[in-house]
Predict the structure.
Amino acid sequence: MEDRKSIGFFGCRNVGKSSLVNAVTNQEMSVVSNIKGTTTDAVKKSMEILPLGKVLIIDTPGFDDNGELGRKRVEATKKILRNCDIAVLVTEAGRNLNSIEENLILIFKDRDIPFLIVKNKSDKILKRVQNNDKEIYTSAINKTGIEELKKAIGEFLKDNSKTKKLIGDLIKENDIVVLVTPIDNSAPKDRLILPQQLSIRDIIDGHGIVVVTRETELEETLKSLGRKPVLVITDSQVFNKVSKIVPEDIYLTSFSILMARYKGFLEPSVKGAKTLDLLKDGSKILISEGCTHHRQCYDIGTVKLPNWIRKYTGKNFEFDWTSGNDFAEKIENYDLVIHCGGCMLNSNEMQYRLNLTIQKNIPFTNYGIVIAYINGILEKSLNFLAL
């Protein structure tokens, strides 16, 4: 997932969250009715909203939902908070915040999530009582206050924005970068995976020259270039093969390592990979993927990686797997967490997962870093930081 800023709309049932989301997006994104609990699952929409730019809008179920199913919806909504850059608390004009809304604010503060309070249904009141500058009065019905809300969200985005580059900040104009992209049974049909797409765009934006090839054609590709590339970026699965082809005077790294840098967990992941040598027979390792996909017979997470680790250590470990939004809450049961590159998760979610492991003193690393380490090329794959 491209790191669009995530804007979550939270609140109790029937305060007009979905109507407000539809007004902000100018689309019928969510189903609206007067019946409490119409929104039963989070509704997400990636889009560009002027003047906000690229964002992910999230409409959530009511935080006061009740019953067994309602409690499950509330727990699912709490997970949404892990992804949010900004929280919009939607309440009703003409009344004070209730205990549930006050609790939501405490959660926002505890998780350090910037938030706005929106007093919706302002068309139904005669007089506004503005308690603080975080409160914005809107009417989703009359479309009043919508531009003011978008402007306020935009200010939060501007104040909390960080310019990040996958690789573009390390290369110079006209530098040649070679991308090695294996095409096998696990490769997505008719497209490149997201880290490859992001790398291509980042190199182009940095006025570099990008060359894409498979590992089977890499040697011939390097020979055919008029001058040597400054960097080769490879898929982790063929790290060992590619490292034997790329000359020592050309920097080499992987998409997974670049993603660890981009998402902000490169340093702890390098330390985490080295703990493999300290694990004992029977240690428990969690392998976690950010996306959910159909498993292939030679799947990297469930087949290749465990086999490579067993071969390297000569030990038998107990492996568990999670994918998508699932992540082990009882993280203390594990001796090591190995995560994918996290391209389908935003930086907030990845930081949340990393922090869980830090709190429990559990080593954390990712696919590409582990693969580089067990092949003895981790230090070589980190030399690109000197670019």
Observations:
- The chain has three domains: 5-160, 176-258, 266-374.
- The CA atoms of residues 203 and 382 lie 18 Å apart.
- The mean pLDDT is 86.
